[in-house]
Amino acid sequence: MKKILEIMPLASSAMVFIGDQFSYFREKGGYDMHLISTPGDGLDEFVKREGITYFPLEIPRSIKPLQDLKNIWKIFRYVRKHRIDMVIGHQSKGVLYGMIASKLAGTERRVVLAHGVLEDTMTGLKQKIFATENKLMTMCATHVLCVSPSVMKRRVALGIDPPGKQYLLGKGSCNGVDALKKFNPQNVPESVREEIREKYGLSKDDFIIGFCGRLVRDKGIVELAEAIKLLTERHQNKPLKLFVIGSPEKRDALPDETIDFLKSSEHVVFTGKVNYSEIQNYYSVMDAFILPSYREGFPTVALEASAMELPMIVSRSTGCIDSIIENETGVYCDIQPESIADAIEGFFDKEKARRYGEAGRRFVLKNFEHTIVKENMLAFVNQVFS
């Protein structure tokens, strides 16, 4: 039985973005699945359910040379001890650790799973340093699997990957979304919607524009907050609410004035973190969804929201640009308050919003339903082993 090790720094990412792909590979492909990640809530239950051999490792997000070297050594020993046949590195630290350790261990199949292009929001020397580091990781890898067409193009433009080493699953994503059961608006009872509206003081007359994600500058939250201020000035009699799901982070932190606005404005519902098992219920009370991000890989939230029949507003940034069909499932905006406000106004037209939302769900069902993406991912792995 061939052994595959996936290295993913965050336990939550393994559970949400890879999910039952582990058991699918084991059952359909006959692979022995291994995982290395930082421990997290619910992970013990997850690895037991998925049949994963798990090795806990504290993986810091920032650069810590001594700890990083120790971790690479531990992974090297793990790979040699378990005779791992393929290593898949996710996110920057998972790629760094996985490619160096597996290259040194002599593992024949070494896969970079490129979830995005961190360098997109960097300039000058810092961008060159990070691009050079990623180029070295690509040199250590045998395959680079990109999550979107624009990630592929951007990595080539930055000199990170040679085109011949890159691969893409269909139209993108690494696991898609469960659009048949979880992210299906027909599966959310009206009583659940009413409960959420009552909890947050929402009216059926409110136009609710939703955002879900990390509350950092990179996500365009500063510009989104300013756009809401513009809209409430333009439409003083329209009941407009920005529904914000997520928690502020210290890294790339938002300005204090933006946080204060999100927490205090009568036009903002600030939920904080929401359990992933309930997130579809929150999408179901929204009228439209926005992601004015400066960079993404392939935004899973955009697929989730589209599957829930929400019309989309996204920036033209890497990753985001692949998540809609322009003027059919959503529209693009510039990452500027005026452009964001104009795009939101466009979906005040209920018929237009309905049409775009229904088209968005069809788009996801055709290209990103997770059964389709899992089959594509397994085919890729089988190809690498052939």
Q: How would you sum up this structure, described in words?
A:
By secondary structure, the protein is an alpha/beta fold. It has two domains: 3-176 and 370-385, 3-Layer(aba) Sandwich (Rossmann fold); 185-367, Glycogen Phosphorylase B (Rossmann fold, 3-Layer(aba) Sandwich), CATH 3.40.50. It is built from 15 helices and 13 strands. It has helices at residues 11-18, 21-29, 43-50, 65-82, 91-105, 124-140, 149-157, 190-200, 221-234, 256-264, 279-283, 300-307, 337-346, 350-367, 370-385; strands spanning 3-7, 32-37, 53-56, 86-90, 109-114, 143-146, 166-168, 207-212, 240-245, 268-272, 288-291, 312-315, 330-333. The protein has a seven-stranded parallel β-sheet, with helices on both faces. Strands 10-9-8-11-12-13 form a six-stranded parallel β-sheet, with helices on both faces. Helix 5 links the parallel strand 4 (86-90) and strand 5 (109-114). Helix 4 crosses helix 5 (91-105), helix 5 (91-105) packs parallel to helix 6 and helix 9 (221-234) crosses helix 13 (337-346). The longest helix has 18 residues, at 65-82. The radius of gyration is 21 Å and the shape is globular.
Task: Produce the secondary structure layout.
Layout lengths: L2 E5 L3 H8 L2 H9 L2 E6 L5 H8 L2 E4 L8 H18 L3 E5 H15 L3 E6 L9 H17 L2 E4 L2 H9 L8 E3 L21 H11 L6 E6 L8 H14 L5 E6 L10 H9 L3 E5 L6 H5 L4 E4 L8 H8 L4 E4 L14 E4 L3 H10 L3 H18 L2 H16 L1
Parallel strand pairs: 1-2, 1-4, 2-3, 4-5, 5-6, 6-7, 8-9, 8-11, 9-10, 11-12, 12-13
